[in-house]
Amino acid sequence: MKSQSTPLPQTPTPTAAPGGGGGGHEQPVAPGGRLAALLPRGTMARRRAALAALLVLLLLAACTAAAAAVTVSRKQRQRHHPGGASASAARSCDPFAAAGAWVEDGSYPLYDSARCPFIRDEFACARFGRPDTAYLRYRWRLDAPCAQPAFDGAALLRMWRGKTAMFVGDSLALNQYESLLCMLHAAAGPAARTTLSPPSGKIDPSSTVRFEDYNVTVVYYLTHYLVDLVTEPHTGRRVLKLDAIDQARDWLAADVLVFDSWHWWPRTGATQPWDYIQVGDTVVKDMDRTQAFAKALHTWARWVDANLVQTDTKVFFQGISPSHYRGQDWGASPKKTCMGETRPLNATGPYPGGPIPQQAILRGVLAAMAKPVYLLDFTYLSQLRKDAHPTKYDGGIFGGDCTHWCVAGLPDTWNVLFYAALTAGQGHN
């Protein structure tokens, strides 16, 4: 089947302002021509003086209109493709762009994980006996002049009344989703009525929690690659289709969409869930994974622009979440992993292991889109949190997990900053 997408709408033709022209530049009229006919009768000197005054007024009006046009154009460019000095100033208090540091805060954690019914075993570090608790008490403190963001779960529930928020992606999206559920559940209070669907909590391909008192629906939709992964009925071949996104029709009902991808792209061997990659009519056994990731992102971006550009749907994309399997990334022994780590990296400069290269690809794709998409760029602040992974306290699911994050824990900070972005309305209609 082909993706059911609506075409990208045509840009409307600008309408002339009342009393103005149609937007083009008229040729100036020489003195004594049409303008002279509009002047009052009198002596030649009076007529020339009046003509000069009228020309001055017309010149001032033209300059004002031109300045207004430049202002509107600049605002449009900054809204869709932020850049330049003005955008830099605005980003200085973007909670994901501003500098900060991890500090201990006695008001953390923001909820008691033992009272949250939505945490899966793989993230439930306290449930499975993690003995240290310092990882729960860290808050990301933004440097001045940025105001410190705070999370108000009750306000968010009211903001989302009657709406659906959907997290679309792999288990890192699930990590943030379950953290947000716990934060909302704590804010709604112990008497809050919630409905889990399906009741088993099985994700196939989605799972939904509804906060009944607020008519708020929060959905997790599982897709490892955003683009389609299909099994051919006759051959049984599993094919990753980089230019197909039929599953996206399931996302259209959401009012807020949070996407993520990359974690599964480098997989090989038994954990690789596809046998072939297809682009158009070309089918290959394998290709450079970063190139494949870029092609899939462009497919996703085209779908968003074709279907959501004229809607009020707010669209976010997670920054790429880091893993901590290589100690040299944070200045430790190459044999070191996140196992046994109990403190963040105390760093104010660049992360020793450097940026994640695919993050630049993600930024480039988002910058070229017509639909404003807000990047939840938590990569750097998460790179510093080598202490926040489940490690062996995950119910025995992974054994030594340095990829996912404990809940409660680091994903709560992601959601504090997500809430700040939502309430600031940055990057959206």
TrEMBL record:
Its main location: Golgi. Residues 1-17 have a biased composition (Low complexity). It comes from the Eukaryota. One of its GO terms (molecular function) is O-acetyltransferase activity. It is a single-pass type II membrane protein. Residues 149-420 form the Trichome birefringence-like C-terminal domain. GO terms for cellular component: Golgi apparatus; Golgi membrane. It is found in: Golgi apparatus membrane. Keywords: Golgi apparatus, Membrane, Signal-anchor, Transferase, Transmembrane, Transmembrane helix. Residues 92-142 form the Trichome birefringence-like N-terminal domain. The chain crosses the membrane at residues 49-72. Residues 1-32 are annotated as: Disordered. Belongs to the PC-esterase family. TBL subfamily. This is Trichome birefringence-like N-terminal domain-containing protein. The gene is LOC100278562.
